[in-house]
Structures are given as C-alpha cells and as structure tokens.
Design a protein that fits this description.
The chain is α/β, with parallel strands linked by helices. Helices cover about 45% and strands about 20% of the residues. The chain contains 11 helices and 10 strands. β1, α1 and β2 form a beta-alpha-beta unit. The chain is globular, with a radius of gyration of 20 Å. The C terminus is likely disordered.
C-alpha cells in the first residue's frame, strides 16, 4: 500500500493540481474523499483545524497548502522535477495565479452554475472561508470585471507559451503549469469548454497546453476511508523535520505558535514549533485519536505568531 494519502474532493481545483502532480510523478496514492462543506472532524484531528483542501498525509506528517505539498512530493520522488528552471519562477507564478484568479474565476463560474450550488455551500464560503457572497446574485454586479481580468490573465499565459514553448517556464512542465491550469480547468469542466474558450478568448496555445496537462492523468489511486487514514497516522511516527531552528523572525523551536493563512479561511492552527526555515514551518500537535503529528505549512501566504516563550527544545 502506498504511504501517500490525499484528502480532497472531486470538484476542488486546488486538489486537481495535486492529483495531476501525483500522476506526473507516477506515484501510487490513497484517496480520501472529504466533504466540500465542513464539518470534517477526522481531517481536523489530523490538521489541527486547518480549513482548506487538499491535505497530503504521509504517515504522521501532514502537509497543508499546495505549495508545501509540491515540495513534499518533490522530496519523495525528485524526478521528474516540478522545478526544471528553478523554484523561484514557479513559486512566484503559482502564488500570483492562485491569488489573482481565484475571485474572478468564481465570479465567472457562478454566472453559469450558481443556481445549482447548495445554500449550505454558499453560506459556508461566505461566513467561514472567502468572506464574501459568492452566490450568482452576489457576484453578478462585478461579472464584466471578472471576465476582463480572466481574459487578461489567460492572454499572459498565451504570451508565455509563445515565448517558451510547450510549458510556461520552458520545454518541461513545472509546478507553475499545474497551478495555472487549475482555475481554467474549474471553469471549463463546469461551464463547458467551448463556452469558456469563447468567453475568455483562450488562445490556441492555451487550449493545447491545457490538453497536454489533462493528458497527464491522476496516476494510480486506491480509495481509503477517513478512519483508515487516521489509523495510519496514529500508527506512525513523524519524520524529523530536517529544517533546523531557522525561523527568520527568531521564533525558537519549542515555542507554542499559531499558523494562519493570510488571505482567506483564516483558522489558526496551534502547535509546538519543531522546525523552520525561510520556506517551510513544521509544528507538532497531539491528540488521543492520532497521537503526535507534524503539520507542515509554507511560509509564503501564512502568518506564524508565537503564543508563549517556551524553552528551546530539540526538534
């Protein structure tokens, strides 16, 4: 059985980029389907309450946010690499795309299918996740602006492809391709590819690029229940973080901290700092149900705040 477990749901675009990453790297993995709308009590036990999906689990190590998931999978299987031209350009493009396109993509999406979204889903996203009304009626006044923004961003992708070839950063696929694909995938999969291609004026280069990425597939997955995943975590021991005591703001290993996304779904996760550097932070959490876990977050896009002056301890 594979040690890799992905907690996700089918229509999650952020999950789609990780499913494609698993396919690209040829990794076997276990699929745990979670609800699109919380509560998700067993997943909360694993993450300490982290609100977003997907979550990657490798034994008793839990990876939150797609950037740190990319890095975990890169460590597990370095080739083919997600960073053929170096990490910087792929990370910068990924962060830009995720943050710039998410709201306009939702605006276009709900114009097509908003009336079919359950009320509990809309309420949850407004009250607990996005902080704004993503109903069809709520997004409608800004629809022209959302179309304009998505059209501009898609045109930038076309420019990159004309300059660089088959992929955004060069001849080989990178993490940036998998990220920039996902919100266009969300629209084309739910609203109709022909309609979205026409509305956003997607260039032939972009459509062909999307076809190349879709052809990667999701690799070899095995279904797993949330209860089985929890049992895997409890039976395992977290790996040593390997990051040292290198928090750039000086927070020492052994300190109780909260880690919180800085954009949306701002639910803090509290734990003990066990390792940190400029790119990743790892905190330990404990529970009777799962034992000791190490929960991993990226630094970009997250805030880490010390909650106490706990004595320095070995990771």
């Amino acid at each position: 059985m594979s040690d890799i477990i992905l907690h996700h749901y089918d229509l999650s675009p952020f999950s789609e980029k990780i499913r494609l990453t698993l396919g690209y790297k040829g990794l076997d993995w276990n699929s745990v389907i979670v609800e699109a709308v919380p509560p998700r009590p067993l997943l909360d036990t694993l993450t300490g309450g982290y609100r977003r999906v997907p979550v990657l689990q490798v034994g008793a190590d839990i990876y939150c946010d797609t950037e740190v998931i990319f890095h975990a999978l890169e460590r597990i299987k370095p080739a083919p690499t997600l960073y053929p031209t170096g990490e910087g350009i792929s990370k910068a493009l990924s962060l830009w795309w995720d943050r710039s396109t998410w709201k306009p993509a939702i605006g276009v999406l709900v114009d097509y299918i908003g009336e079919h979204l359950p009320e509990e889903f809309l309420k949850d996203r407004k009250d607990n996740y996005l902080g704004y009304d993503m109903s069809k009626e709520g997004m409608a006044p800004m629809l022209p602006a959302y179309v304009q923004q998505m059209t501009a961003f898609a045109d930038w992708l076309a420019s990159m492809l004309r300059e660089n070839g088959d992929y955004l950063t060069g001849k080989h696929l990178s993490a940036a391709d998998l990220t920039c694909y996902h919100s266009l995938w969300l629209l084309r999969a739910n609203c109709g590819a022909e309609a979205i291609d026409a509305q956003l004026g997607l260039a032939p280069e972009v459509i062909a690029w999307m076809d190349r990425i879709a052809a990667i597939g999701h690799g070899n997955k095995t279904d797993m229940t949330p209860e089985e995943a929890l049992a895997v975590a409890k039976a395992a021991t977290p790996a040593h973080p390997g990051l040292g005591d290198n928090d750039p703001s000086g927070i020492a290993v052994g300190t109780t901290v909260t880690v919180t996304p800085d954009d949306n779904a701002r639910v803090p996760v509290t734990g003990t700092l066990v390792g940190a550097d400029t790119q990743e932070i790892v905190i330990a959490i404990d529970s009777p149900e799962a034992g000791r876990l190490h929960v991993h977050f990226p630094r970009a896009g997250f805030e880490t705040i010390a909650q106490s002056n706990s004595a320095r301890s070995a990771a």
